[in-house]
Amino acid sequence: MADKKLIGVDLGGTTIKFAILTLEGEIQQRWSIDTNILDDGTHIVPDIVDSINHHLSLYQMDAEDFLGIGMGSPGSVDLQAGTVTGAFNLNWKTLQYVKRDIEAGTGITFTIDNDANVAALGERWKGAGENEANVIFITLGTGVGGGLIADGHLLHGVAGSGGEIGHVTVQPNGYLCTCGKRGCLETVASATGVVRVARDMAEEYSGDSKLKATLDDGDEISSKIVFDLAKANDPLALMVVDRVTNYLGLALANAANLLNPAFIVIGGGVSAAGDFLLTRVDKAFKTNTFPNVRETTHLRLATLGNEAGVIGAASLAKAAVNG
Ligand SMILES: [Zn+2]
């Protein structure tokens, strides 16, 4: 078993990333293909099978060389059945028999989980999580996702919604979320959430601010623009960042008060704001944690970037065999 390899697959709405890794999590080969979501996404699984088989023959490897394939997928994932449904960015509206078809097509054991959980496993194993048994991962992108690893295991909950930190309420009766509830963390801390907060605060703000002028001119803004202006001491942008980071710190503090992880790892596009974001979130985090948690749980920026998905997927395949 010692020289067997792992395959990690990160299925996204625009690209599918693949990697061949050692059992220690070192990437040996990586490639990607475009995601073809036409015809209700029926090409996706056959494309994955073809791409894996093509690359194995390219590297003169076969199914026997692998311990397993792991994959992170959008949508609702049934871990036991290996099926996915409701992945709307893939046009998968009906039940997809992903495990059955990929195992039949490649002859390699297949394990699947949702993409945020898989990214959490990746950051935990080879990234900022330092392979600790207790790690929380949060990704701040178009939405806000997360994964909870407690005592070495991902928490899925009774219906697979464990770790949905984006829907923690931070503002009762706040903005309406895509989930139908109000005041979710995602409505204020995702990339679109930051812009929403900026627009609202700009309406009430009367001072001198480049951010306000940009919005008043009707120009498009992004969360990156808000953070860049805040770094340049724009007073309104600083107020927006303070509000957003206060909500983030509050939500992460409450997660830590429950789970007391070694690390909370922050990833996703918004986290590109770096230490400027982290120090502000940490301030609100420390205000809202009780002493033992405040002293033992630490916030960190993610370190793996785009590779968290394939690395985490590979660790899923490894765990499926090792238990
Ligand atoms: Zn929500």
Compact overview of the structure:
By secondary structure, the protein is an alpha/beta fold. About 40% of the residues lie in helices and about 20% in strands.
Number of helices: 12
Give the % helix. Answer: 40-55%
Cα(first) to Cα(last) distance is 15 Å
List low-pLDDT spans: none
Instruction: Report the sheet-strand fraction.
Output: 15-25%
Q: Strand order, biggest sheet?
A: 3-2-1-4-7
What are the bound molecules?
A: zinc ion
Secondary-structure element order, N to C? EEEHHEEEHEHEEEHHHHHEHHEH
- Radius of gyration based on Cα positions: 21 Å
Characterize the main sheet: 5 strands, mixed
Your description of this structure?
The chain is of the alpha/beta class. It has helices at residues 38-41, 44-58, 98-106, 115-126, 186-189, 191-204, 210-216, 223-231, 235-259, 275-287, 291-296, 308-322, and strands at residues 5-11, 15-22, 27-34, 66-73, 76-78, 83-85, 110-114, 135-140, 144-150, 153-154, 263-267, 298-301. The strands form 3 sheets. Strands 3-2-1-4-7 form a 5-stranded mixed beta sheet. A 5-stranded mixed beta sheet has the order 10-9-8-11-12, sandwiched between helices. The chain has a two-stranded antiparallel sheet with strand order 5-6. α6 packs across α9 (235-259). The longest helix has 25 residues, at 235-259. It starts with a strand and ends with a helix. The site of zinc ion (ZN) has 6 residues, from loops.
